[in-house]
């Protein structure tokens, strides 16, 4: 049935929704099987009755249209749609803004919401995906804790506040982000979601936001006035502007794979069943690959159009720099590829990545899914590497299972595979068969995200008898692996000062804090000062990575030619040599997860740019001949290019590397 709908009614216009001008607003809604549609106009978003009803006329391709003359800026509206004799009122699925709790759309003069200087600012430049340093952040977490001293606690506008410090005088907020050196902030869902009551914001409420309600509307609980649809737009733009002025890009977490409601969603009320995937063409049996009650049928023409229209809208109207897709395995690859093409035309620096898995079984054919194992079919999209995550710290779903940095029996070959970006490499024969991508630019390396335990809490469970000092070594080694590996580095906000989510009492930790209180979720900014050495280490790793191109190669060929793993190393130790850097003639990295020092040897003089206590762009000492790598640590050696010297050719890197294998 739905394929026939697509053939007969697919609409290609870019004018769905309420298109505003000072003289008139044109309302258009795609509802090809509806028997009747009426626009209802309201003066406020709390009015119980409309002040005007405007019957719409059905035109070509199942689009209902109505021109309403006069200046309707700020007027709220809904559609009254009749399907199969049932009349239901709904918000416009293309609504650009909304009143409280997203029940009514709002006609809006979008340029009037722009902050001063908006038109002069641009997207953040990103030459290659591997140049990104990503920081995942929840808007409420960022500023709600008293330790941050924010004025706009839990709001978009917290990002415009400069000069804030914690109790010890260390910078917090936007100043902290700049100090840390991240290139992009990944904002957890900031579109209008369902489960926070915007009419009662004095009541403490929390949700991660993976419960979509209105995809094209900023979330009202993050604004200072959720009753005014203009406020949420204007304040969202001020947040974007402030981040861009700080040189930080914005990646928006998008959740087009499911909606919070099914039968009562605006999609169902507009066109029952069409937007949702079903089993075996049974229109009454919804599939649930999201684990949230439904999944969006991305492969249908007008669903695909909706998703791409929405992405393009955020990229153009709000100048969003990239998108992270929740449960990307539920999207068909054609939708994602087409989305990239459209977004790349708008912003050549756009970055796309997502979760390369599903939340349950789905009727979408395996070969069509935008999953990690199909990554080669979506070459311009990156995927979270759960391989990296679980190898470094242990199984993400088993609290007490250890990984490479916290005491597991090492699988050195697997560590080499993840640190090379899980791409084919001449020294790693296993990857000829089991690599899932040909490009390090498709690999997002991480050990912590909003889901599951923080890294620091995981280390408590896996190593409860170890000292805090020893667990800090493990944390820093995990960070070093994230930032020194080929691929795209990603951390969760607060990871750089040992973020923890303890339940009351502090002996157990929240692994799924999606609706837990602020006491668990908020960023405790005083921890930055308490664990200042950890923050400085993360900061130094980021600076080191950003300064040296050898840590962020972006093609398979570059990695194969310029990264060589060293042989004959001490037990569990992984080492590699890098060439073709912009600054160093040669870089050597050793990873030592053992709880004892290991003896190594340097043929020639090298500066030490990272060890167990320091990371940065200036050497802290030099080594020549025998030296030690400290327990549970990474060490980075660099030899500067000398005038008149040239790099050894790529063909000779493996011969050259053999000279560094003495231990």
Could you walk me through the main structural features you see in this protein, from its secondary elements to its overall organization?
The chain is an alpha/beta fold and 663 residues long. 24% of the residues lie in helices and 21% in strands. An eight-stranded parallel β-barrel has the order 10-11-14-15-16-17-18-19. Strands 20-21-22-25-23-24 form a six-stranded antiparallel sheet. Helix 7 (333-346) links the parallel strand 15 and strand 16. Helix 6 (301-317) runs parallel beside helix 7 (333-346), helix 8 packs across helix 9 (412-419) and helix 12 (468-484) runs parallel beside helix 15. The chain is globular.
Tag the structure with descriptive keywords.
24% helix, alpha/beta, 663 residues, globular, 21% strand, eight-stranded parallel beta barrel
Q: What average pLDDT do the residues reach?
A: 95
Structural class: alpha/beta
Task: Give the biggest sheet.
Answer: 8 strands, parallel, barrel
Please state roughly what percent of the residues sit in beta strands, choosing from under 5%, 5-15%, 15-25%, 25-35%, 35-45% or over 45%: 15-25%
Low-confidence blocks of residues: 646-651
- Please tally the β strands and state the result: 25
Oligomeric form of this entry?
single chain
Measured as a percent range, the helix fraction is: 10-25%
Q: Span between N and C termini?
A: 69 Å
Count the DSSP helices.
17
Strand order of the largest sheet: 10-11-14-15-16-17-18-19
Q: Which term fits the overall shape?
A: globular
Give the C-alpha Rg: 26 Å
């Amino acid at each position: 049935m739905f394929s026939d709908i697509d053939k007969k009614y697919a609409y290609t216009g870019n004018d769905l929704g309420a298109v505003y001008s000072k003289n008139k607003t044109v309302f258009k809604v795609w509802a090809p099987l509806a028997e009747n549609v009426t626009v209802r106009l309201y003066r406020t978003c709390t009015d119980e009755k409309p002040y005007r009803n405007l019957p719409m006329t059905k035109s070509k391709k199942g689009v209902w249209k109505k021109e309403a003359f006069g200046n309707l800026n700020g007027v709220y509206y809904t559609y009254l749609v009749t399907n199969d004799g049932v009349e239901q009122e709904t918000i416009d699925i293309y609504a650009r803004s909304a009143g409280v709790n997203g029940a009514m759309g709002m006609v809006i003069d979008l340029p009037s919401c722009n902050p001063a200087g908006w038109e002069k600012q641009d997207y953040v430049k990103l030459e290659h995906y591997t140049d990104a340093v990503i920081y995942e952040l929840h808007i409420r977490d960022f500023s709600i804790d008293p330790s941050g001293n924010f004025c706009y606690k839990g709001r978009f506008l917290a990002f415009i506040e400069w000069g804030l410090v914690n109790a010890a005088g260390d910078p917090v907020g936007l100043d902290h982000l700049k100090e840390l050196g991240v290139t992009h902030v990944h904002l957890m869902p900031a579109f209008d979601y369902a489960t926070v009551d915007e009419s009662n914001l004095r009541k403490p409420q929390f949700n991660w936001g993976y419960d979509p309600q209105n995809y094209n509307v900023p979330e009202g609980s993050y604004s200072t006035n959720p009753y005014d649809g203009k406020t949420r737009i204007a304040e969202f733009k001020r947040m974007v502007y402030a981040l861009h002025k700080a040189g930080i890009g914005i990646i928006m977490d998008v959740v087009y794979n499911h909606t919070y409601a099914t039968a009562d969603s605006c999609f169902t009320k507009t066109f029952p069943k069409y937007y949702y995937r079903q089993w075996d063409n049974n229109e009454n049996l919804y599939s649930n690959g999201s684990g949230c009650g439904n999944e969006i049928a991305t492969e249908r023409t007008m669903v695909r159009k909706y998703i791409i229209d929405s992405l393009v809208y955020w990229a153009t109207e709000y100048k969003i720099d990239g998108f992270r897709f929740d449960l990307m395995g539920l999207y068909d690859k054609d939708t994602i590829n087409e989305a990239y093409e459209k977004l790349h035309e708008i912003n050549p620096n756009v970055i796309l990545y997502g979760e390369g898995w599903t939340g349950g079984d789905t009727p979408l054919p395996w070969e069509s899914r935008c999953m990690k194992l199909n990554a080669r079919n979506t070459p311009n999209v990156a995927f979270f590497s759960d391989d990296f995550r679980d190898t470094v710290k242990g199984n993400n779903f088993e609290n007490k299972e250890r990984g490479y940095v916290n005491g597991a029996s090492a699988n050195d070959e697997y560590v080499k595979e993840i640190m090379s970006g899980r791409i084919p490499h001449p020294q790693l024969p296993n990857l000829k068969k089991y690599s899932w991508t040909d490009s390090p630019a498709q690999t997002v390396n991480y050990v912590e995200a909003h889901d599951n335990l923080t890294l620091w809490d995981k280390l408590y469970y896996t190593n409860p008898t170890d000292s805090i000092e020893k667990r800090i070594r493990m944390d820093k080694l995990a960070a070093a692996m994230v930032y020194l590996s080929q691929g795209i580095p990603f951390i969760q906000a607060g990871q750089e000062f040992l973020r923890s989510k303890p339940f009351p009492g502090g002996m157990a930790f929240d692994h799924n804090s999606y609706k837990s209180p602020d006491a668990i979720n908020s960023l405790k900014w005083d921890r930055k000062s308490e664990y200042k050495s950890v923050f400085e280490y993360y900061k130094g790793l980021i600076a080191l990575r950003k300064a040296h191109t050898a840590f962020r190669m972006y093609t398979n060929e570059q990695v194969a030619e310029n990264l060589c793993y060293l042989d004959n190393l001490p037990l569990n130790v992984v080492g590699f040599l890098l060439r073709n850097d912009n600054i160093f003639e040669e870089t050597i990295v050793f990873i030592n997860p053992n709880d004892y020092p290991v003896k190594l040897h340097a043929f020639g003089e090298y500066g030490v740019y990272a060890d167990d206590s320091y990371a940065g762009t200036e050497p802290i000492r030099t080594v020549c001949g025998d030296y030690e790598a400290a327990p549970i640590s990474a060490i980075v050696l660099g030899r500067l290019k000398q005038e008149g010297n040239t790099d050894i050719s790529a063909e000779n890197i493996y011969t050259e590397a053999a000279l560094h294998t003495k231990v």
